[in-house]
Design brief:
Number of domains: 2
Distance between the termini: 28 Å
Strand order of the largest sheet: 1-2
Oligomer: single chain
Strand content: 5-15%
Largest sheet: 2 strands, antiparallel
Number of strands: 4
Length: 117
């Protein structure tokens, strides 16, 4: 992991994923290991557990610096725009679709996706 940002309702992480590891396995390690560590060290009252879902976006090698800067500025950024507002914008911008269980999925028809701003 190169850079991360932790907020009470979400985490941003930029990860160089090994070709031998699936996204699902990486998320299991990240969420499972951090939950275990938080609980073992008594960092929160009661038992800590992550929410069910997660979002994953790929980035080209040439975009790593831009994403790293974006993550590094999250604390300031979220003073201006809430996480839920930003997530809604990402859903609209990248042609994702809300599912009933409040997660999103990629929409197969890219032509219906709005133009990135």
């Amino acid at each position: 992991m190169k850079i991360n940002f932790v907020n009470p309702d979400h985490v941003h992480a930029l990860v160089d994923l090994s070709t031998g590891l699936s996204i699902e396995e990486m998320m299991q390690f990240l969420k499972g290991g951090s939950s275990h560590w938080v609980n073992q060290n008594g960092l929160v009252a009661g038992k800590f557990g992550w929410g069910r879902g997660y979002g994953v976006f790929s980035v080209s090698h040439s975009g790593v610096g831009e994403v790293a800067r974006y993550i590094a500025q999250q604390e300031e950024h979220h003073h201006k725009k809430s996480f839920s507002d930003e997530l809604k914008l990402l859903v609209e911008r990248y042609g994702l679709k809300w599912r009933d269980d409040k997660t999103v999925e990629t929409v197969s028809a890219v032509s219906s996706a709005p133009t990135p701003r």
